[in-house]
Amino acid sequence: MLLEDIVKEFEECPFLQHLGLEILQFEEGDVKIKLAMKDYLLNTNNTLHGGVYASVLDFIQSMHLRSVTKTRCVTTNLTVHYTAPVTGGEIFAEAEIISKGYKTAFVEGTIKDETGKLLSKGTGTFKLIRPDQ
């Protein structure tokens, strides 16, 4: 797949649109996204809901992986560490591949606030869906 096709798939994803995720950069091995806080993303403590952190980490890790492999993937495991709450502004996410084989990959992602403060860190295991499978 071409990078442009992968970006288009993500931009047209209804769940990504609902969250309001914005792709800032999408190049091979260098993907950055941001999310502007919205009231409907908050929990009862008026902080970003933990499920949103998990969704953002899942998106950034799979986007980063696909930018490198140019193939589809599915999440088989996702671990999220919540390090700080956020109540407003914007958050930014990046990822890097820790290891990658032919069938699976292990990826790490981070979410930071506008000042660079770490809000959440997560790891994911992904099954690569190759055209020959």
Task: Give an overview in words.
This protein is an alpha+beta fold. The chain has 3 helices and 6 strands; from the N terminus they run H-H-E-E-H-E-E-E-E. A 6-stranded antiparallel beta sheet has the order 1-2-4-5-6-3. The longest helix has 20 residues. The mean pLDDT is 95.
Key descriptive features of the protein:
PAAI_dom; 6 strands; Hotdog fold thioesterase; 133 residues; six-stranded antiparallel β-sheet; Thioestr_dom; globular; alpha+beta; Thiol Ester Dehydrase, Chain A
DSSP summary: helix tally: 3
Distance between the termini: 15 Å
Which CATH class applies here?
Answer: Alpha Beta
CATH architecture: Roll
Indicate the CATH topology: Thiol Ester Dehydrase, Chain A
Q: Mind telling me the C-alpha Rg?
A: 14 Å
DSSP summary, beta strand count: 6
* Helix-residue proportion: 25-40%
Order of helices and strands: HHEEHEEEE
For the largest beta sheet, what order do the strands appear in spatially?
A: 1-2-4-5-6-3
Write the layout of secondary structure elements.
Blueprint: H1 3-11, H2 14-19, E1 21-27, E2 30-36, H3 50-69, E3 72-82, E4 90-100, E5 104-113, E6 118-129
Antiparallel strand pairs: 1-2, 2-4, 3-6, 4-5, 5-6
